[in-house]
């Protein structure tokens, strides 16, 4: 096939990926666990164009920046070398979430690109192989190949570092967007700086491996409360390690902290909700599905609120145009 379109959704980690053991292969320092969402999709079409001078990448209808295009070309080079092709491609991508706002658009972006590019270049890959391929674009994309809850095994080489499904309690995520602007320090740079300069990095990696074991057990037991407790703890530990970088990086703003405060108050009032945040100011709150409307209503004054649930892993869709 020379043209393929895929759709993928972002995922939000309950146990975070923060730090690489291998920069080139994007092997993480520890495993992680996330929920693939049913909103904020990325839809990407890859069309081979053997007569073009080079790849062309457009994002939301406009030509992408040189840095974004370079990242896509580096990813396509991997696919081309496996497929034995030298053909450039036209890549058209549409994001339903604001790019670079800590809502993991790189996860849905590279998951959709992996599926569409593998198909367009004629590679026949299974889900684990697609998950490994997506990993090379952006670590968190590894998990967006999986429906719903997903565990990314850190692995110790390219073959063993991929994501697969895991059972767990039903939950909703209430996304509170504080600021949709592009973040000042990319997660790639901030991870490098954390590993190189944060005195808490080693503690972060050790405690994450431990949290992942506890989280896996809590998921299998369907224990929403424990899942929530580990989620909030793990997020705060990640931000503590990041804030201790030199020079420091602080992703959480006053508005983010206000959401953590409100979530604490919700719990005091008897509604079980727990907060997490990625590399940006926006906060994601998890609750049982039956409580999400009440949680969203309470958090409504603190940012733009959207309730999402578990969504599908990246897959091919019929051509749109
Ligand atoms: O895949 P990246 O480089 O965008 O890193 C994602 C890092 C976090 O979103 C902060 C955590 C995670 O596990 O998704």
TrEMBL record:
Keyword Nucleotide-binding in annotation: yes
Residues covered by the Diphosphomevalonate decarboxylase-like N-terminal domain: 8-163
GO CC list: cytosol
Enzyme class, broadest EC rank: lyase
Pfam families from the UniProt entry: MDD_C, MVD-like_N
The EC number(s) this enzyme carries: 4.1.1.33
SUPFAM superfamilies in UniProt: GHMP Kinase, C-terminal domain (SSF55060), Ribosomal protein S5 domain 2-like (SSF54211)
Keywords: ATP-binding, Lipid biosynthesis, Lipid metabolism, Lyase, Nucleotide-binding
GO annotation (BP), single: isopentenyl diphosphate biosynthetic process, mevalonate pathway
Any one GO molecular function term: ATP binding
Mvd1 C-terminal domain boundaries: 174-298
Similarity section: Belongs to the diphosphomevalonate decarboxylase family.
Protein name: diphosphomevalonate decarboxylase
Taxonomic lineage from the root: Bacteria, Bacillati, Actinomycetota, Actinomycetes, Micrococcales
């Amino acid at each position: 096939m020379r043209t393929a379109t895929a759709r993928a959704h972002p995922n939000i980690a309950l146990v975070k990926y923060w730090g690489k053991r291998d920069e080139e292969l994007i092997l993480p320092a520890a495993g992680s666990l996330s929920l693939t969402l049913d909103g904020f999709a990325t839809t990407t079409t890859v069309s081979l164009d053997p007569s073009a001078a080079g790849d062309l990448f457009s994002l939301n209808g406009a030509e992408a920046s040189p840095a974004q295009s370079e990242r896509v070309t580096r990813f396509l080079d991997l696919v081309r070398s496996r497929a034995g092709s030298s053909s450039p491609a036209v890549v058209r991508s549409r994001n339903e979430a604001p790019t670079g706002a800590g809502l993991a658009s790189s996860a849905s972006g590279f998951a959709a690109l992996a599926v569409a590019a593998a198909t367009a270049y004629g590679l026949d890959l299974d889900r684990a192989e697609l998950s490994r391929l997506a990993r090379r674009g952006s670590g968190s994309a590894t998990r967006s190949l999986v429906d719903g809850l997903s565990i990314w095994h850190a692995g110790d080489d390219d073959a063993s570092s991929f994501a697969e499904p895991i059972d767990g309690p039903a939950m909703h995520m209430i996304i509170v967007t504080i600021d949709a602007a592009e973040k000042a320090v990319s997660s790639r740079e901030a991870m490098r700086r954390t590993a190189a300069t944060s005195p808490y990095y080693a503690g972060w990696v050790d405690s994450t491996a431990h949290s992942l074991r506890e989280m896996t057990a809590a998921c299998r037991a369907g224990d929403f409360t424990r899942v929530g407790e580990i989620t909030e703890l793990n997020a705060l530990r990640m931000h503590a390690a990041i804030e201790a970088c030199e020079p420091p990086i602080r992703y959480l703003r006053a508005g983010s902290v206000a959401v953590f405060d409100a979530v604490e108050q919700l719990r005091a009032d008897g509604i079980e909700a727990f907060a997490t945040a990625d590399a940006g100011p926006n906060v994601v709150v998890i609750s049982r599905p039956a409580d999400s409307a009440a949680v969203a209503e309470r958090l409504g004054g603190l940012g733009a609120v959207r309730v999402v649930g578990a969504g599908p892993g990246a897959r091919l869709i019929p051509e749109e145009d």
